[in-house]
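Model it.
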Amino acid sequence: MGILKFLAVASLVTPILSASALLAFPGAEGFGRNAVGGRTGSVYHVTNLDDSGTGSFRDAVSKSNRIVVFDVGGTIKIDTRIAVSKNIYIAGQTAPGDGITIYGNGMSFSNANDAIVRYIRFRMGKGGDSGKDGITIAEGNNMIFDHVSATWGRDETFSINGAVHNVTVQNTIIGQGLETHSCGGLMQSDYGISLFRNLYIDNKTRNPKVKGMNDFQNNVVYNWGGGGGYIAGDSAGQSNANIINNYFISGPSTSVTAFTRGNANFHGYVSDNYYDSNKDGTLNGSPLCIQTSCYSNMDIVTTPHDFPGPGRLMTAPDAVAYVLSNVGANYPARDGIDKDLVAEVQSYGKKGKLISKEETGGLSGSGGTAPTDTDGDGIPDAWEDANGLNSRDASDAMKISSSGYANIELYLNSLVPSS
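Modeled.
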């Protein structure tokens, strides 16, 4: 929808992003699309599934300016929360076997400026800190989360709330927030949050709860509970939101309509959002009316807000098919938990439940074997040899190519399709 040009509330100006700025990766979209990650830093190998120490995931993200690659797959059980440093690229697509899962407690990305997070599962669980989120961001800027699977938060499952600038969450599962709270999450920032092609599933409430500047397009929301599906902010602050071509599908736990709350300060542009409320096992919803009777008490505006939207906007029915095929950490493989969540949606109202304790049988299984990387630079020998690099020279991984990406980023981008 064009380059972002606007004044934020309280007369604060959000930086205008350059049209020529390098994307975090091909397919990066929305407010967080220009996150830098660890492009000017170094490569760190996660070599074990330990909670801490050299070669652990916790150690990998403890220092700034790193591209984190995985020589192991499987589940990393963490006892305490992990705080991520600035300029970190978590390249979960490099994990062998069935991929990588962080399980047992939550993650903080507060002030993790320029984070790039791809193809990884964060599953908090009942043993995590009471009253804490699965993923939380309270401040910071320029972050993108792509193909992440986030479940089992004890407070919110994935929450952004505060002075947070330019964040995108795309192609991500946000599900099964644990009761009694059971929340998808707050998405509340005056400075730009994009939510594209995500799946909210089995959360009692906040799927999501939105305030501030928010772009919500091509998402699927399934089996929300009595707390509500999309909750529009109803405070004195001004909110500006696009809500375009999303699909809301009632499940066994659903007892309230798709949209709740909102007031005259919540200025929502709404278009072609579908709602299937009948729980009959068939996807046969229809577009919601463009009235407050369908969209709660928000102020419905007639012109879309000029936010950086998705490059390809799908119809809501097409978005369902795309999301179910592609959402979450689906490379190198979906785990059993994500497969079950997708199967719930495909029941179109027949399956799904709110949970108070996680079922861990579907956690990442096979660890696999990492490809040979003689110089230890994070790029396998075969790829270096095929692309004109030296598999015995570790310095070439972080050299910037003519594309603007570091050579290792070209390798990372080659592993997965552009979103």
